[in-house]
Amino acid sequence: MRIVSLIASSTEITCALGMEEYLVGRSHECDYPPSVLGLPVCSEPKFPTNSKSSEIDECVKGLLEQALSVYRVDSEKLRQLQPTHILTQTQCDVCAVNLRDVEEAVQTLVDSKPQIVSLHPNALSDLWKDIERVAEALEVPERAQKLISDLQSRMSAIERRTVLLSRPTVACIEWIEPLMASGNWMPELVHMSGGQNLFGEPGIHAPRLEWCEVVDADPDILLILPCGLDIQRTRKELQALTRKPDWTKLAAVRSGNVYLLDGNQYFNRPGPRLAESLEILAEIFHPEYFAFGHEGKGWERLPRSQQ
What we know:
Elements: E1 3-5, H1 8-16, E2 23-26, E3 43-45, H2 53-65, E4 71-73, H3 75-81, E5 85-89, H4 99-106, E6 115-119, H5 124-137, H6 141-162, E7 169-175, E8 180-181, H7 186-192, E9 196-197, H8 211-217, E10 221-224, H9 231-237, H10 239-242, H11 251-254, E11 258-261, H12 263-267, H13 274-285, E12 299-301
Helix pairs in contact: 5-6, 6-13
């Protein structure tokens, strides 16, 4: 068995299923667990990833408007690796290599004729289906049930403890320029961790958001977790938010409840670490009840001096 994973979440699922030894290639975004970093890289973005949020948005929109892919699959590298399985997704053309690109690249792989396993993560329930899908393809279906059971047990334990707690209103910002709220599984995670989500609906892609909507909603807690960005990178993008009208009047800002989260490693990867993502939210919303030790790694409070 020779597996090439072209999305970070499927790489994490594969490793969580105990199948890391069969990975022979990865995408440019696959970086967890760190042991996969030595694998050959089989994809690359067609836009400069170190640009500002607004510039990345313009580049991506320009490519999609021309019906072009946002990522490039290295067909020659795949030919050299001769995979028996390729893991990809159909959830978002912006987030990772899409199924069409993989199918085109696979046309050159006459010898290995790999099985393409496409994941479809839109809501939290889809994560369990995707784990089962990968495990079935890799012929370890029994491992899926144990992994799912362990993750659901951890997450349910948090949800049960939040039932009787007060629920702060929460705004999750998934992109800064243009402004977008978190969708898909994030509204579910916010609810499970004891918050009241203000924008975005379960199972639906991140919606565009007007700043006046944020001001009018006046959230108790403001979470900033741009897709694909770590905390350090997010910090550099903050002025686009902090310079907006009425920023200092927001309840979250006045109370010091603005948080930077690692959207790249946790919240925007629909893999096993959504359990850690839930833990992060719980210890932000209810620090008097939850302490999992993620502060400083998965999240940090924005200092009042920067608010």
